[in-house]
Amino acid sequence: MDSKDEHSEEHVKDERSAEDWPLPPSWMWGCAECTVLYKAMKRAPEVVDAARAAGGPGIDYDPMDTVVTTQIRLARHIATDHAQDVPAVDESCDRCVSDISAKQFPAVLMLEHRARHLFAPPSIAGLI
Prior knowledge:
Layout: H1 9-15, H2 26-29, H3 32-54, H4 66-81, H5 94-102, H6 107-119, H7 122-125
């Protein structure tokens, strides 16, 4: 058998692609605000797509960038209210490594980025 246990965190991380949405940690479901913000974030693309489908061309049906702002609100909540649960720097994430080496961003912004690793796929977490 492989040296990695098939249920280990490392094995699961290796099996996920950059597009897969991770299952949030269980402690997030124990926080009412995390739950509300997470559900809003997951619903946002569907709501925006439905508005686009119902409307005509040439209109911005998401002027407030709902998809992005819902992710930012959840990350900010985790960074400020659950800082002890934010994962450490992911050495495989260019943004994590850049944030640490540049030392030019406020700590809360670096925590927000790392919090996104809890609930967003790597392809999205690395953008903000």
